[in-house]
Amino acid sequence: METTTLKNLISENNPYGISGITIPRIQRAYAQGRSDAHAVKTRERFLSAIHAGLINNGLTLDFIYGNIQNGQLIPLDGQQRLTTLWLLHWYADKKEGINDKRLARFSYNTRYSARDFLIKLVNYEPTWKTHLSDEIKNEGWFPMEWSNDPTVRGMLTMLDEIQKRFADINDLWNKLDKINFYFRDIEEMKLTDDIYIKMNSRGKPLTDFEHFKAELLKVMRSENDDEATAKRIGLKIDREWTDLLWIYRDEYNLVDSGFLNFFHMISLILVYKSDRSSSEFDLEDDFSLLERLYKNQPKNVVFFEQAFDCMVNIQNKERRSNSLILNPIDIFFNSYLSKDYHEHEKVVVSQQITDLNIFKGVLTGAALRKNTTYWLIMLYSFLIYLMNYDKIKEMDFRRRLRVVVNLLKNSRNEVVDTPNGDAGNRMPANLRQVENIILSGEIADSIMIDNDVRLNFNVIQMEEERQKLQFTKEHPEHSAGLFQLEDHYLLQGRTDVVGYENTHLYQRFIHVFDRCSRDIIDCAMLATYDYSQRINNWCIQLGSGNQDEIGNKAWYALFHPTGKNPDFNKTKKIITFSA
To answer: In 148, 234, 359, 508, which residue has its Cα 20 to 30 A from 494's Cα atom?
Structure first.
């Protein structure tokens, strides 16, 4: 489909039969010149894109739709872009002394003040001695009440911004021909004014999500040159993806925030997959993420689409098997994960995960507020499985997921994105390791990225997990007991103090620490041997008699020493005394 320019659209003998452009009363005021944060961000982004297009290879904007009535184009969608383009052409015309009569063919019919302002502006010649807005408002033909018109006020703001940004471009008038767009007449599309009324009857500005959706589809359609993907994803957003998110809608019956939260998490995964840090991105700037992660990067678009479709497939599969299920995705995650205690064929999640429904935790924002790296690895583990569903047996996935969870629980200093810290940004390597575990069931000895060996999860825990994988493969009859031991709240995946090979101690350890007095345990162990672990020159670690959070932390510290504490073997000797 061919593109056009603003000049062509308002030129004599244009192919559309347009003699002018009129913004009708039903349209809202010109918004790109507003002073609120969203408008400022939109204005900066739009003008920056135009500026880059002028000095490089041009810029193709998205579709502009309209209805042609008596020779006048009545914009249905594209009012804001057309107005900004007209103001930019006006600036170039006055700056270079072009005096092009076509500029008079653009008009606002929202209020008389906006209409009359444009009439005066076309014939006005600036002196360029100060800001355009100040100069214009000082003219005798500018009544003070026009400043109360939001469209006039917005145009003055935009003219100042244009003056600041485009003063350095020579031959601007001719270079503006490099900015084009697609135009469609709704009559040719067999549409009626009904769609016009529907799109404009709210009298409200578009929401952030609506702007985001338009920009997302534009990136796919215009930048990635993929009309088919843009159309397909646009339909999914309106239908099955909205249906997927509906159960998690907010108090205003909107799914916007949930969609954007999931988009942010998927984008963060893509950041790490590209071996970068979150510190390099503004994760709250949706449009910047689109520009940097999805523009001309079709593989990332595919991953984004597949991630959403995975969740849709879960929902559809569970509903097909049981139409009475109210929240199929909740059922799915709960079938693999447990919160506080061991359950058959499930794994107890790390304490950083506050909702077993990982998808819900992402949508509600919990995953982005705190412990994001933990949530991200859990989500990525499930996505890798779901994207390779035909290649991975479910029981294999359950075993491999347990390995990932055990690594998470015991890699507090390694599941980090701290480029300037001692551990650095380990997330790219962590994701590579997770992918290797879920797909192959093996823990890679080393992770290579760009020919560099990268550190990932805790090396002690990885070695234990390798040994346990081999042990359960050779002795599947002991798997259930080992998994129950792993899930004990004092061990949380690390069983070294008991020894995975000491199968007869599995239940004994669980029974003693769940049912016996900690004071008695402490006394019995000390009576047998000095099981204490020296932390430093002035402090040693012993267990506590309290069976509360503080007491649990004391025993947890004994069973999970940091680094290679030689005294750990003293504690293990007592635990395995009867082995």
So the answer is: 359
| Cβ pair 78, 240 in contact under 8 A | no
Three-state SS sequence of 330-367 = HHHHHCCEECCCCCCCCEECCCCCCCCCHHHHHHCCHH
CA 47 to CA 269: how far, in whole Å?
30
Q: Does residue 191 register a pLDDT over 50? A: no
The closest of 484, 498, 495, 507 to 575, measured between CA atoms, is 498
SS3 508: helix
Instruction: Please state, in angstroms and rounded to a whole number, the distance separating the CA atoms of residues 484 and 452.
Output: 38
Q: Are 347 and 491 in contact (CB under 8 A)?
A: no
What pLDDT is recorded for position 579?
Answer: 46
Determine phi and psi for 344, rounding to 5 degrees: -55, 130
Task: Decide: 381 and 438 in contact? Cβ < 8 Å.
Answer: yes
Q: CA 264, CA 90: separation in Å to the nearest integer?
A: 39
Percent of the chain beyond pLDDT 90?
62
Give the whole-angstrom CA distance, residue 238 versus residue 75: 23
Contact by Cβ (8 Å): 308, 262: yes
Nearest to 22 by CA among 76, 97, 72: 72
Kindly give, in sequence order, each residue whose CB lies less than 8 Å from that of residue 257, ignoring residues fewer than 6 positions away. Answer: 209, 250, 363, 365
What is the Cα 70 distance to its own chain's centre? 46
Kindly report, residue by residue over 501-529, the tens digit of the pLDDT. Answer: 999 999 999 999 999 999 999 999 999 88
What pLDDT score does 324 carry? 57
- Give me the pLDDT at residue 116, please: 94
Does the pTM surpass 0.85? The reply is no
Q: Where are the alpha helices (DSSP H) in 6-36?
A: 6-9
Q: Tokens at residue 455, please?
A: 């550190």
Rounded Cα–Cα distance for residues 493 and 488 (Å): 8
Question: Any bridge partners for residue 337, and if so which?
Answer: 347
Determine the Cα angle at 372 with ends 367 and 376, to 5°: 85
Question: What is the CB-side half-sphere exposure of residue 490 using CA atoms within 13 A?
Answer: 23
Q: How far is CA 566 from CA 532, 535, 556, in A?
A: 11, 10, 17
Write out the H or E segment, with its range, that includes residue 117: helix 112-122
Angle at Cα 550 formed by Cα 549 and Cα 551, nearest 5°? Answer: 90
DSSP letter, residue 495? -
Distance CA 21, CA 527 (A): 94
Query: Nearest Cα to 578, choosing from 471, 492, 499?
Result: 499
Strands 539-541 and 424-425: unpaired
- Give the whole-angstrom CA distance, residue 112 versus residue 114: 6
Cβ(572)–Cβ(560) below 8 Å: no
Instruction: For residue 350, report the phi and psi dihedrals to the nearest 5 degrees.
Output: -70, 160
CA dihedral (297, 301, 304, 306) positive or negative: negative
Q: With contact defined as beta carbons under 8 Å apart, do 179 and 58 qualify? A: yes
Assigned token pair, 363: 């949508």
Residue 195 confidence (pLDDT): 45
DSSP code, position 30: P
Per DSSP, the three-state class of 280 is helix
Taking the mean position of all CA atoms in its chain, how far away is CA 435?
20
Distance CA 109, CA 101 (A): 20
